Automatic annotation (TrEMBL):
It comes from the Bacteria. Keywords: Membrane, Nucleotidyltransferase, Transferase, Transmembrane, Transmembrane helix. InterPro entries: CDP-OH_PTrfase_TM_dom. The chain crosses the membrane at residues 56-76, 97-122, 162-184. The lineage of its organism: Bacteria, Bacillati, Actinomycetota, Actinomycetes, Kitasatosporales. One of its GO terms (biological process) is phospholipid biosynthetic process. GO terms for molecular function: nucleotidyltransferase activity; phosphotransferase activity, for other substituted phosphate groups. This is Phosphatidate cytidylyltransferase. It comes from Streptomyces piniterrae. Signal peptide: none annotated.
C-alpha cells in the first residue's frame, strides 16, 4: 500500500547534491518547510485562476517543488544535526497547511461542500499515522492516496479541468488510505511488537524528523 511513496529513497538520492549545497550554505530546515507551504499556495492560485490545460505546467512545477522541499527539510536537519522536536511539529503543521492550501485551489472549480469533504478526507491518513506514532507504533506513510498521489491528482485536475471527479477520487482514496493504515496499525499494536516508548519512533520516522 506504499504507492508512490515507495519511490522516496530513489527521489531522496536524486536530491543529494542539493542537500549538500544547502548544508554548506547553512540554510535552515525550517525555511525549507516554509518554502514548501509557499509552493503549495502558488499551486493553489494557479489551479484556481488559470484555465485548463494552461494551469497544468505551473501547478505541476510548484507541486514538484512542494514535494522536494518536504523531502529536503527533514533530510537537511538530519545531515546537519539540527533535529529538534519543535522542528518536527513545524514539519507536520507545514504538511497539513500545504495540503489544505492546494485543496483551496479547487474552491473556484467545484462546490464548497465537495472541497470541504475532500479536505477532511485528505487529513485522515495523517491523523491515523500520528495517532499510531503517539502510541509507539512505527510511522506509516504512503498510499494508495498519500501526499504524492494527492499532488498528482491536483495536476490532473489542472490539465483536464475535471475538478469534481478528481475531488471524488481524492476523497475516496484518502479515506481508503486511512482505513488501510488503521488496519495495519491495529495489527501492529495487537501483536505487541516492541516499538519503543510512545513518540520515540514518531520523531525518527516523521517526514522532517527534526
Amino acid at each position: 500500500m506504499n504507492g508512490l511513496y515507495a519511490l522516496k529513497p530513489w527521489y531522496a538520492a536524486r536530491l543529494g547534491g542539493i542537500r549538500g549545497a544547502l548544508a554548506r550554505r547553512e540554510v535552515s530546515p525550517d525555511a525549507l518547510t516554509a518554502a514548501g507551504v509557499l509552493s503549495a499556495a502558488g499551486a493553489a492560485a494557479a489551479l484556481a485562476w488559470l484555465p485548463a490545460p494552461l494551469a497544468a505546467l505551473p501547478v505541476a512545477a510548484l507541486l514538484a517543488a512542494r514535494l522536494a522541499f518536504a523531502n529536503l527539510d527533514g533530510a537537511l536537519a538530519r545531515d546537519t544535526g539540527r533535529c529538534t522536536r519543535r522542528g518536527s511539529v513545524l514539519n507536520e503543521l507545514g504538511d497539513r497547511a500545504a495540503d489544505l492550501l492546494v485543496l483551496a485551489g479547487f474552491l473556484t472549480l467545484a462546490p464548497l461542500w465537495l472541497v470541504a469533504v475532500a479536505a477532511l478526507a485528505a487529513t485522515l491518513p495523517s491523523w491515523v499515522a500520528l495517532a499510531g506514532a503517539a502510541a509507539g507504533a512505527p510511522r506509516r506513510n504512503g498510499g494508495p492516496v498519500g501526499k504524492t498521489e494527492r499532488c498528482l491528482l491536483a495536476v490532473v485536475a489542472a490539465a483536464t479541468g475535471w475538478a469534481v471527479p478528481v475531488l471524488v477520487v481524492l476523497a475516496a482514496g484518502s479515506a481508503l488510505t486511512a482505513v488501510l493504515r488503521l488496519a495495519w496499525l491495529w495489527r501492529q499494536l495487537a501483536e505487541g511488537e516492541p516499538v519503543g516508548p510512545a513518540g520515540s519512533v514518531a520523531s525518527a520516522e516523521a517526514g522532517a524528523a527534526r
